Amino acid sequence: MDSSSSLPRQSPRLNDLARVRELIESATEKERQLRRAQYKAKVDSTTEGYKHERNERRRAAYCARISAANRQPDDLEGSSSGQVSVSAGEHNSEPSFILRRSPRIQLQQRALQLDSGL
What we know:
Helix content is about 70%, strand content about 0%. By secondary structure, the chain is mainly α. The longest helix is centred in the N-terminal third of the chain and has 34 residues, at about 10-45.
């Protein structure tokens, strides 16, 4: 018997699919290698001065954002001319209600005001 006849015969369609898959994989690998080479060239072309300048800009932006977050409560207290919340001030012994949109709580608040007024 011939040794070629003992091997199972493969479908031409499966052979074509395998060949197409290999071509696609080799093309994507070439693209990856090209991207890696381009990235490496870009990284090598950037100077240390540019990297330092970019880091300084990032650091300055971060510091500005942090200082703005730390300044925010002070600005709110200075600009508010209306009512200050109870939690921001000292403790009051009288009970106080925070106005909500719930009609039940509004009715309770009105009843409490009427009781304390009489």
